[in-house]
Amino acid sequence: MSIDKILQLTASVQLDNLQDGSHLEASNIINGQFVPTAKTRHSIDPATEEPLPPAPLATKQDLDAAVKHAHEAFKTWSQTTFDHRAQLMLQYADAIEANRADLEKLNTMESGKPLLVSKTEFDFTIRWLRTFATMQLKDEVIEDDDERTVYGTYRPLGVCGAIVPWNWPVLLGLGKIGPALMTGNAVIMKPSPYTPYTDLKLCELSMAIFPPGVFQALSGDDALGPWMTEHPDINLITFTGSVRTGKLVAASCAKTLKRCILELGGNDALIVCEDVDIAKCLPKIATMTFINSGQICMLAKRIYVHEAIYDEFRAALVEFTKEHVKTGGGFEPGVLVGPIQNKMQFDLVKDMYRDVKDSGYQLALDGRILDSGKGYFAEPTIVDNPPDDSRIVVEEPFGPIVPLLKWSSDDEVVDRANSLNHGLGASVWCRDLVRAERLARRLSAGSVWVNSHFDVAPNVPFGGTKESGIGREWGLEGFKQFTDHVSLWVWKKIFD
Ligand code: NAD
């Protein structure tokens, strides 16, 4: 595919005037065609509570058709070379890059996230796709002598269903599509009903690049996810979402013994030791607490600060947050905390703010809920040393509210950090790197950082322990999960 052809396609995508959504047409894509649905639905602009343009409402027949076409496409796609798939993946990344300004606006419009965060999501996504294009699962030679060679090879599974959440729909959507396609699978993406538009447009951009049926997208309502997990001809579900839904997905996949990768909720502990330079670590800690209004799985959700510096740290965090963490609409400049993405989540966040107040916990920063009927806004709130069994400590709030907790010994803080069923990310901030690493190695989480939080990369596996998930995404470890390991035994001399 020449770049001219791609640009021709992008001209027809019509992403103009996105800020008011008036020119947006979103369609399901089956076998390389736009397939309209008889009924449509729409989601809500979280910054205004106004309805967004119509989005498709897929039926079970649409899903059956997509699965059939995916199997057909898989026959040829799975036989293509790695180099061919890599070349198309790079073209796809280029096409997204050429359209990114409009797509970033669309992402902000539907998700509410600040435009700057949307840009970061696209920076990551484009980098992820380009890196995926360099990552090959190569055969291993397990044994090789005169008599026989035994290879370990990786065979694609067939048709994958990618179920995407609303909080990070671009990176987490294409973070599934890239590995599925690079390993030779066909894939059907299902965006969240709360954020269908950008994901559908991203599939639309792929139409001129990948063969029909290789990458399809279906948007629908709450029925579509369970249809996918139950479908007898889908071979793997890669799911990102809440722990509660993850358990339903696992139970449903078990009925057909379908593989599933589960990337679920987190309640990350961030541990601050007494030897840190507070001013140096504060900007990153505050950002990794409140960015995207706290609606990221791997943000700092419990901040444990050593008692020797607790008061000083609390004052500095409050000061920094007041000064630098601005709440507002995603298109307003300088905003870090946009609206909560949807009413269901806003109600949960409001309930958490209410619980904190009703329980009489001290508030170091008392953020308001701005419930005016014109957007789902909540200001950053910092809870001062609530009990370990309080809801704000044990539940993932998924909003801009965080508890600060006081600790005194290494053993104690490790036990408290590890005490929950979550295990997605965790971090230790400490000048003494030997102590820091010793603490880090004791934390039960899929990603653990020293003097950082929420680092991710396309070549580094990512996922959770305990109830935060099963399996890994990204990195070659993540690629393997889209394949079956096949042991290939070749006897060489039997007919000599
Ligand atoms: P959710 O579980 O409500 O929905 C996720 C997706 O699953 C959506 O596309 C939804 O339509 C679909 N779905 C809903 N019910 C289903 C069912 N019964 N069967 C199949 N699919 C179904 O999650 P959400 O509210 O969109 O996302 C927020 C949650 O996701 C948070 O808990 C967050 O921590 C978690 N999350 C985890 C990661 C990670 O990588 N570990 C990343 C981002 C978000």
From TrEMBL:
Pfam families in the cross-refs: Aldedh
Residue stretches making up the Aldehyde dehydrogenase domain: 39-484
EC category name: oxidoreductase
Transmembrane segments: none
Keywords: Oxidoreductase
Residues at the active site: 263
InterPro entries referenced in this protein's UniProt entry, alphabetically: Ald_DH/histidinol_DH, Ald_DH_C, Ald_DH_CS_GLU, Ald_DH_N, Aldehyde_DH_dom, LUC3-like
EC number: 1.2.1.3
Superkingdom of the organism of origin: Eukaryota
Catalyzed reactions per annotation: an aldehyde + NAD(+) + H2O = a carboxylate + NADH + 2 H(+)
SUPFAM superfamilies the UniProt entry points to: ALDH-like
GO MF annotation: an example: aldehyde dehydrogenase (NAD+) activity
Stated family: Belongs to the aldehyde dehydrogenase family.
PANTHER family membership: ALDEHYDE DEHYDROGENASE-RELATED
Name this protein carries in UniProt: aldehyde dehydrogenase (NAD(+))
Organism: Hypocrea jecorina (strain QM6a)
